Amino acid sequence: MEIAVEDRAVQDRLAALEARVRRLEDSEEIAQLIASYGPLVDDGDAESVAQLWDRRGSYDVDGLSMTGRDDIAAMVRSRPHQGLIAEGCAHLLGPVRVHVDGDSAVAVCHSLLIRHGDHGFVVHRATANHFTLDRAADGWRIGCRTSRALDGQERAHLLLGAGARGEHL
Amino acid sequence: MEIAVEDRAVQDRLAALEARVRRLEDSEEIAQLIASYGPLVDDGDAESVAQLWDRRGSYDVDGLSMTGRDDIAAMVRSRPHQGLIAEGCAHLLGPVRVHVDGDSAVAVCHSLLIRHGDHGFVVHRATANHFTLDRAADGWRIGCRTSRALDGQERAHLLLGAGARGEHL
Amino acid sequence: MEIAVEDRAVQDRLAALEARVRRLEDSEEIAQLIASYGPLVDDGDAESVAQLWDRRGSYDVDGLSMTGRDDIAAMVRSRPHQGLIAEGCAHLLGPVRVHVDGDSAVAVCHSLLIRHGDHGFVVHRATANHFTLDRAADGWRIGCRTSRALDGQERAHLLLGAGARGEHL
Questions:
Q1: Angle formed by the axes of helices C2-35 and B2-35, to 10°?
Q2: InterPro entries, per this entry (chains A, B, C) (predicted)?
Q3: pLDDT by residue (tens digit) across A35-94?
Q4: Which of A76, A155, B50, C127 has the fewest beta carbons under 10 Å from its own?
Q5: C-alpha dihedral (A52, A54, A55, A58), degrees to nearest 10
Q6: Cβ neighbourhood burial of B21 (10 Å; 0-12, 13-18, 19+)
Q7: Cβ separation of B95 and C90 shorter than 8 Å?
Q8: Which of B43, B87, B96, B97 is the mutation pick for testing A, counting most A CBs within 10 A?
Q9: Nearest C-alpha of chain C: how many angstroms from A155?
């Protein structure tokens, strides 16, 4: 009898640990996914960038709306993006704030696009980024990324607050 | 007898895991707390920014000393801060180095204030940030944040080293 | 008999948890190690910076190749680096993407060197950073750090992609 009771306590502690570890893994995996965007896009690795998104994922950035991996890969291969790489650029995304809710998640971060030119390096753009993510069979993927330049447009600031509070758009 | 011995070994492994998971959770929760400052302050969400601090928490930044959540919320609502948002700005805080010691912690990071203006984006300020944090009933909160512009003043550089070594100020 | 079976299940769950927690700890420890570089180097703490590397670790940055902790500490104490600190600077490293494989790891991140001068703050350099790390008796240490300015040189962009895919150089 005593053994059975203790055993149930062990089962409960194991289950609690498994849930806590899974939560940490989810948060870490999403942070790693987003941390790989900048290095991959600056290397021009179109396939790997596209794989960060879900098959039907979207990327909506000022004046440009992409849907699906082909669209995203095409942006990386486009003349404007390849021109950035040729001159030197850094897409630096800041640390993400992540809210995980079961099999979906919301994340938010700032990003900077630093460009190299004749007079050295400049901040070409500072951007607000809101992500929704979904758990797929083989890991987390981006469902929607919405990005707006922080140039005074209200929408950009709203994205940041919504993401930090874990709200969908 | 054999069962009892094994059971003690299971208890020990469970306790060790629980301690390790709690350490990871503490570190992650503090990183998430600090990662939400920039997005919230750039959205002008005064209440949510203030809630990152302990009820009696302080924020000491060059030439401005705030104590308690009302002071911090007032800074977010102030004309100068609202002016930054209206023109476009990004408070980008870098990844934090965190030292947790029981129910208190020290964290450190750089931050950049990027502003948008007539000639595009500029780095308005690079800042050293030292945090002390305390575990409250409902999670970690900032006790003291001390920030100094990295404009050559010795104090700013000292803050960074102290924080990286887990030292209080 | 039933107890023995259940016990084996408990052992398996404990072992699985221990492996998952260790993976999270490895990733977190490496992120923390790299997050301490900027604050320590901006404080001029030569000894602590050198300790981030393995005894035989190397740091290869455009035009400068260092091997061993003495070389790295000497760079921190050098007149050029001390000059940066005296005028005000921020070595801000972005969030790292880490791949751990047993006792070795690859990590990648962008970094910015922000300098203060007569006309305020400027982005002096944006850099690609590729790290290999090894697990030592007392924790993870940097084996090789390879850094190249993102000024249009192809090598810098290749470093980023390799690191993001977990490849050695």
A1: 30
A2: NTF2-like_dom_sf, SnoaL-like
A3: 999 999 999 999 999 999 999 999 999 989 999 999 999 999 999 999 999 999 999 999
A4: A155
A5: -90
A6: buried
A7: no
A8: B43
A9: 25
Distance in angstroms (rounded) separating the CA atoms of residues C94 and A148: 20
Three-state DSSP class for B44?
A: coil
pLDDT digits (tens, 9 = 90+) for A125-147: 999 999 999 999 999 999 999 99
The answer to whether residues B92 and C114 touch, using CB atoms and an 8 Å cutoff, is no
CA distance C161 to chain A (A): 5
| ipTM of predicted complex | 0.95
Q: Is A2 within the bounds of a domain?
A: no
Model confidence band, residue C2 (pLDDT cutoffs 50, 70, 90): very low
Residue B3 lies in a domain: no
Residue of A nearest to C123 (CA): A121
Q: What is the structure's pLDDT at A63?
A: 86
| C110: nearest Cα among C142, C84, C76, C147 | C147
**Chain C nearest-CA residue for A30:** C97
What are the CA-CA distances from residue C47 to residues B27, B57, C52, C70, C79 (Å)? 25, 33, 9, 9, 16
Q: Which residues have C-beta within 8 Å of that of residue C141, sequence separation ≥ 6?
A: C33, C52, C53, C54, C57, C133, C134
Domain range enclosing B59: 8-164
Percent of chain B clearing pLDDT 90 (strictly above) = 95
CA–CA separation, C51 vs C136, rounded Å? 12
pLDDT tens per residue across span B47-77: 999 999 999 999 999 989 999 999 999 999 9
Judge whether B124 lies within some domain.
yes
**First CA to last CA across chain A, in angstroms?**
53
Number of folded domains that form chain B: 1
Structure tokens at C47: 């000894």
- Mean pLDDT on A14-18: 98
User: Would you say residue A32 has pLDDT above 90?
Assistant: yes
Q: Any idea what the Cα angle at residue A107 is, between residues B148 and C156, rounded to 5°?
A: 70
Residues 6+ apart with CB under 8 A from B151: C88, C116, C121
Domain-located, residue A42:
yes
Q: What are the pLDDT digits (tens) for A38-55?
A: 999 999 999 999 999 999
Residue of A nearest to C149 (CA): A88
Query: Residue type at C74?
Result: A
Q: For residue C160, give the nearest of A14, A39, A95 by CB distance.
A: A39
Which chains are within 8 Å of B by 3+ CB pairs? A, C
| Mean pLDDT over each residue of chain C, to the nearest integer | 96
Which amino acid is residue B51, in one-letter code? Q
How far B40 CA lies from chain A's nearest CA (Å)?
Answer: 5
